[in-house]
Every structure is written in C-alpha cells, then in structure tokens.
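User: Can you recover a sequence for this backbone? Please restate the input before giving your answer.

Assistant: Of course. Working from this structure:
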C-alpha cells in the first residue's frame, strides 16, 4: 500500500505544529521520520491515524484521497499505530486487549475469544513473537507488551504500521529483536513509518529518511549519511556526538555501599549483597539489562521501595532506613527513571516543579507562607540557564516535550549544593540535542567534585560518561571495570559473564555475545 501526505498543516492556536508536510511511504519500506522532541513528528502521525484533524492538506492511499474522522477510519484503510506509551489494559489478557474495539461474536452475541486466540497464535508463529494469548499484560516484559501492540495492528490487517518512538522503553536486546521483526514485516509487504531520534537505529533499519525540525520537513537523507550529518540536520547546527569528558581525578570515598540487600513486596530477592564506592569527582555508571535490580538499588539509596538491609553511608552518615525527605536534604540529588510519574507533577507549572523539594524552605517560604516572587524569579533564572523551552514559567509540566521535562528535573536537582547525584536512565527518550546537554551537565557536576551515580541500559552512554562501570546481573554485581572498557566486553558482562571471562571471550569473538547458561560460550566455557 502506498501512502502520501500532501501539504499537511496542523495548528494549535498560534503554534504551527505541522507546516505543509509532504512525504511518501512506498510499499514494503521502512521510512524513518527523524527529528528532535517537539519537531512535530507525533502530531503528524496523530493526523495520519485520525486522532487529530488537519487544518489543511490531504492523505492519499493508493492514489485515492481519504478522510479520517477517527482511528477506526484509519484502521479500516489499513493504517495501524503503536504509540510510545502503550494503549493496553494491564489487567486484561493479551487476547482481550487484541479484540478490544474489534470484538468478534458467535452464536447468541457471545464474544469469540477463541478466534482471537487462534489469530494471535498464527501471527506470533509467523513472526516469532512468542506471545501467549492468555497471559495477563501487566505480567509481561515491556518488549513483549510492544509485540502485543503490533499484533493488535496486524489482526486489523494493517498494511502501513506507524511505530512512534518504539525503542524509547526497550533495552538494547529488545531493540535488536524489534529490528528483526520490522524486517520480517516489510519482507511481507507491510510499510513502516518509524518515528525516532536515535541515529544508530535509523542507520541500521531505514530505507529512506525524512528529517523534521520545528514542524517542517527540512530534508531527506539516506541511511549512508553519517550520524553527524543527520544530527546537524535534526538540530539545525553542528552537534557533538562525543562526550568531552576529559580526565577525572577521583578523590576520597563519599558514598560507601556495603552488603546492600533488597527484598520486594513479593518477597523476591532483587538486590543481592551489593557493595561499591563512589568517590568525589567520579562518575560510576551502573550498567545492565533492565530488570536486573538497578531500579531497586537506586530506590534503596533514596529510601524508596522494598525492605533493605546493609549500609549506605554518605560522607560518613548512614542513610539506609531514613525517609526520602531526609535523604534529599542530606545532599542527594535524584533524577528518576520515569520523569513523568516520579520526577514531575504534571498539573503543576514549570515554576512550581522547580521547587518541589525546596518549597517549604528559605528563600521560597517564610514560615507557612510561600514567597511566590522568589519562586518565579528562580524559575526565570533556571529556564534560561537550562534552556527549558516552555511558553512561560506558568506552563504545565505535562505539556512539555520529554527533553524539556528532563531539563526541568535536572534544573531542580542541580540547582542546590549536592553531596551526591543519582540519575537513572537520564537520557531515555531524549533527542540528540537534549542528550548532548544532559551529558555536559553531568560531566560539569563531576568536575565540581560531586560523586555521580548513573544507571543506564545504553552501553554507548555508559562508555561515554563513566570513569568506572559497575555491571549488574540478576541483582548482583558481576564486576566493576574501567569506563573505557569495550562495548563487546560490557555486553557479555550484562549477560552474566565475569569480567575476566568477558575479556577473554570478546578477544576470541569480537562481535559475538551470548548467555553463559544458554550457549553463549564455546563448549567447555562457562
């Protein structure tokens, strides 16, 4: 199926989100729509999927103009969409989610769940999805939930599949699996519109690339273009893709973690006897596949999460067992994994979010009374310093792009004296320009002699930022290695190899990774 967008324009008041957008998606191709957060990519796809009406322009399917009053019309025309934030009911089974909105019945109006189960098994077998129709969605890993979304579209006979930032919540391994699925889909004639800002992925999967900036198409590119060329086209200026971390000079131990053990609310051991130090002027990155205890580790440091034992000492003061407020006021800055849920209050303004952990203290409060003038002047200063792109300091945080939401969190946490900065997945879902900014601020904080603990599933990021890298697997520390350790070695360690085994295996098979318990090494190896 051939898809064309001709002169699509979409306005929100005085804001022109899409300005005369023209693009063509050929049958069986992966067409990447590349651009920063806020470039208008998702708005354009919402128009294509019938979620928004264009103010001008037309959608053409196989040379015939079409008009969509809602997603049902788009699906009927053969267009499916997988949203960045999945549209699944967590307590429903896979089959129930797939049939929702397209219910099949039999007999006396009874739902024909078995027909849906059979179709899910058929698609799952065809593409190697390995999805159980009777599994409850909330119990599935994120990567499998995404496959359920794709199955929903395929069950409805989608010939064009829109994937909106599909790797934003995936691990590197899940991303590789998704790439394979995309190639299978296009081999069977499905066209894919792949919305992203990740240059490595674009070069790996794209057949053609359209670049958007500030609501307009600013150019077409080929996968052979360099990452620097694509980044410059996205941002409109030269962008450094290499973190200029310089050399660090770690000082005394500031954070000392000893024997940290965490049991979750299901009595599962999720952090198992973890010990490490972070020194002044050092970045320690905790690497590993999502779900190996990193989240629970950082929650324990902050006084969140499950039952924790062991010791967490910051500059000699024990933090374990103290409430979150006390931990923050001991000098810990925290950038959480989920900025929307844990980092911001969406219905608060930018100004209010910038003082969430300081609103009741001088200079933002006098006794029980807030000092609104000080809160507003602080916001104006931080918005300028951190290049937060918002309509005003009174803009609701929920309306900001992901990159600007992250800048609000960083501005709040870095604008007070810190003894430790903890940041989990600090650049997840961010565009190239925002990633460059976040990395520079993290290195600047390190150079200010603050110990920095980063949790990242991105091995490239770990190598770029870290002075040392701690790798976790199944809740335990596999090993701690220098920050310049090769990506292949780190990949093997995230699969459970001890450092010495990973170095040996990587030297023998430079591009080979695997699992030590599932055929990852040669016969006779671990």
């Amino acid at each position: 199926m051939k898809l064309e967008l001709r002169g699509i324009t979409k306005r929100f008041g005085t804001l022109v989100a899409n300005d005369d957008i023209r693009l063509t998606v050929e049958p069986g191709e992966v067409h990447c729509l590349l651009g920063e957060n806020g470039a208008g990519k998702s708005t354009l796809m919402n128009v294509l999927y019938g979620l928004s009406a264009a103010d001008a322009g037309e959608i053409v399917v196989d040379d015939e103009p079409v008009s969509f009053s809602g997603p049902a019309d788009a699906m009927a025309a053969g267009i499916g969409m997988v949203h960045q934030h999945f549209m699944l009911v967590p307590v429903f089974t896979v089959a129930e989610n797939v049939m929702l909105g397209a219910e099949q019945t039999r007999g006396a109006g009874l739902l024909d769940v078995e027909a849906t189960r059979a179709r899910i098994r058929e698609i799952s077998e065809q593409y190697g999805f390995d999805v159980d129709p009777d599994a409850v969605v909330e119990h599935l890993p994120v990567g499998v939930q995404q496959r359920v979304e794709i199955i929903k579209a395929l069950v409805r006979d989608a010939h064009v599949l829109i994937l909106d930032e599909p790797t934003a919540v995936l691990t590197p391994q899940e991303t590789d699996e998704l790439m394979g699925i995309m190639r299978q889909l296009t081999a069977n004639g499905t066209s894919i519109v792949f919305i992203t800002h990740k240059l490595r992925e674009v070069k790996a999967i794209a057949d053609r690339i359209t670049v958007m900036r500030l609501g307009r198409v600013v150019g077409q590119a080929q996968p052979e273009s360099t990452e620097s060329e694509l980044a410059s086209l996205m941002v409109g200026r030269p962008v450094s893709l290499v973190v200029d971390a310089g050399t660090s000079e770690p000082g005394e131990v500031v954070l000392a973690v000893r024997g940290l053990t965490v049991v979750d609310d299901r009595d599962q051991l999720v952090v198992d006897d973890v010990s490490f130090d972070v020194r002044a002027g050092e970045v320690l990155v905790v690497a590993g596949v999502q779900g190996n205890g990193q989240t629970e580790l950082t929650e324990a440091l902050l006084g969140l999460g499950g039952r924790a034992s062991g010791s967490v000492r910051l500059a000699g003061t024990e933090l374990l067992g103290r409430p979150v407020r006390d931990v923050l006021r001991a000098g810990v800055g925290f950038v959480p994994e989920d900025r929307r849920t844990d980092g911001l209050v969406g219905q608060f303004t930018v100004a209010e979010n910038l003082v969430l952990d300081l609103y009741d203290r001088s200079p933002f409060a006098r006794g029980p009374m807030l000092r609104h003038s000080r809160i507003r002047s602080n916001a104006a200063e931080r918005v300028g310093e951190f290049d937060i792109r918002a309509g005003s300091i009174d803009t609701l945080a929920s309306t900001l792009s992901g990159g600007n939401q992250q800048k609000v969190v960083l501005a709040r946490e870095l604008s007070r004296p810190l003894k430790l900065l903890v940041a989990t997945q600090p650049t997840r879902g961010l565009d190239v320009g925002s990633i460059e900014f976040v990395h520079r601020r993290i290195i600047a904080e390190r150079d200010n002699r603050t110990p920095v603990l980063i949790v990242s599933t991105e091995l490239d990021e770990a190598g770029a930022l870290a002075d040392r890298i701690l790798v976790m697997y199944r809740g335990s520390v596999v090993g701690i290695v220098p920050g310049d350790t090769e990506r292949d070695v780190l990949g093997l360690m995230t699969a459970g190899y001890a450092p010495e085994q990973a170095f040996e295996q990587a030297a023998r098979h430079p591009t080979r990774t695997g699992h030590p318990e599932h055929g990852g090494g040669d016969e006779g190896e671990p």
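That completes the design. Residues 339 and 406 are 7 Å apart (CA to CA).
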